[in-house]
Design brief:
Layout: H1 2-17, H2 21-43, H3 49-61, H4 65-73, H5 80-96, H6 100-108, H7 113-129, H8 133-142, H9 146-160, H10 166-186, H11 195-207, H12 211-217, H13 224-240, H14 244-256, H15 261-267, H16 272-277, H17 282-298
Helix pairs in contact: 1-2, 1-3, 2-3, 3-4, 3-5, 4-5, 5-6, 5-7, 6-7, 7-8, 7-9, 8-9, 9-10, 9-11, 10-11, 11-12, 11-13, 13-14, 14-17
Length: 299
């Protein structure tokens, strides 16, 4: 147990101090020492998947790609998702240092289709974050699995929304929206979009001010809690845009079609941040709560 703690401490030190040149010189022998410690843990047959993750991340941040991949490959096959996530992390570090072709090749090397598809979401986001927007968009569009493609389009659009490329953002969200609606209509294997991904889409549309489109997406969300989160996001961003009354009306309308008492109760506290932004809405909310209280008694 002590050796595990030592390894985590070394990896943590390397990860956070990697940007200082003087500490990079100190980091290399520490990294070599931690690698030897890791190998000893593995030789004794001890559980070392957590240590592999910490060490692999440190190596990736130091640009030691081959060693980082070797360490990732030691993660047990029983937890293939963890191994895939580790390779995702290494690919992201490669993108940040300009090793784009190696990052793509590494992502392609992930054997299981599902994990590989998800890895391309992360790779597309990594490209968007370093300003390679066209590359990020191309990767997002190339994903075959419907839910992952929608998620990639949304996340790349969200990153681009921090720039001035509003036209690209709206185009990507429109593509994601069309896929989500198409999946709802056809609903067969390979054409499904999860409630969690649809929630992301509703929030992303709200963030760019597409209130009507965002609200129209909400009925596609099957999970009640995620539907409530989407309604909150739309309401909150509406209020930020100075539409506090409309925001409260949206919450009230969501109570109208709520079919469970718990769903209604979940929605009630969501008006508090809106009231904090605009205290004038407190009286409107009070009157709405009176109506909800009456409604709850009848459920």
């Amino acid at each position: 147990m002590f050796s595990c703690l030592v390894l985590y401490h070394i990896a943590y030190h390397l990860w956070w101090d990697r940007t200082r040149k003087d500490e990079k010189r100190t980091a290399l022998p520490l990294l070599q020492e931690s690698e030897q410690l890791f190998l000893k843990i593995k030789e004794r047959g001890q559980f070392a998947d957590g240590e592999a993750e910490a060490l692999g991340k440190a190596m990736a941040e130091m640009g030691m790609w081959d060693k980082a991949i070797e360490v990732a490959e030691t993660i047990s096959d029983e937890i293939r998702e963890a191994k895939s996530n580790m390779l995702n992390y290494i690919a992201g570090a490669m993108v940040r240092t300009g090793e784009w072709k190696r990052a793509e090749a590494l992502t392609h090397s992930i054997e299981e289709i599902g994990y590989r598809s998800h890895a391309f979401i992360e790779l597309a986001v990594a490209f968007a974050e370093v300003g390679a927007h066209d590359k990020a968009i191309s990767l997002a569009r190339s994903i075959e699995e419907c839910n992952d493609k929608v998620a990639a389009l949304i996340r790349v659009a969200t990153r681009l929304n921090r720039t001035k490329e509003k036209a690209k953002v709206l185009q990507l969200l429109s593509e994601a929206e069309n896929l989500a609606r198409g999946a709802q209509e056809r609903s067969y294997k390979g054409m499904t979009v999860s409630s969690a991904t649809t929630l992301e889409l509703a929030i992303a549309l709200a963030e760019v001010g597409a209130w009507d489109r965002s609200e129209a997406i909400v009925p596609l969300i099957k999970d009640g809690n995620e539907k409530a989160q989407a309604l909150y996001a739309i309401s909150y961003h509406s209020c930020l845009a100075g539409k506090s009354r409309e925001a409260l009306q949206l919450l009230q309308s969501s109570w109208l079609y709520a079919d469970k008492r718990n769903t209604v109760i979940q929605l009630l506290p969501m008006a508090v941040p809106i009231m904090m932004l605009n205290p004038k809405t407190i009286w409107v909310f009070y009157k709405a709560v009176e109506w909800v209280d009456y409604f709850l008694q009848s459920i």
